[in-house]
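Input.
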Amino acid sequence: MSAGSVAKAHEAIGEYFCAFSRLERELGEALKVVLRLQNNPAADAIVGIVGDFARKTRVVRRAVQTAKNVDGSDPQENWKANAVELLEEILGCNNPDRTDLAHDFLEPQQDGSVSLQKPGQEPRRWTAQSFTDKIAKLDDLAAKLKKVTSDLTTLRIPVPSGYMSVDPYQPRVRQFPPSDLGMGSRMTDTPLPAKDPGKHN
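Output.
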């Protein structure tokens, strides 16, 4: 089978991963808002350290679930429900679709389809139309996530508990006991000064 005869299949694989990368980039932009990194010169590096697509999605989902208006009231209930549903869809795009295409044995076909096979299992086929549908879905999810990210910039977002700190609104700094520093009485953990929730760094 010549390379030219399967060019459409190769192109579809490339288009899929390009679309997925656009979605992941938008997820990184959402994470910057959640972690208040919009104007931080190290923002891209921090998002890169988080790395894992599923982890980033879950952090943003948790932020949506706990977000408040600046006055402390809840956003419209349907906004939260729709945003959480969107992030669930985004999470579903990673597994099994992206992981299958990235890790299965691929056999491009002349009709533009691709056969995917896991060791010891029967091959499955992604048709040319299924590639088109999946790519369109990724682009649609990225566009919808961009709108959610814009909404999040207007909300008060607690740092997601269990991911970044033990306190849902501000990190805590561990201080050594004065006795360890040659000082008298014992000190306790002290929270960092609270930031104005209406301002984003």
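The first helix runs from residue 7 to 34.
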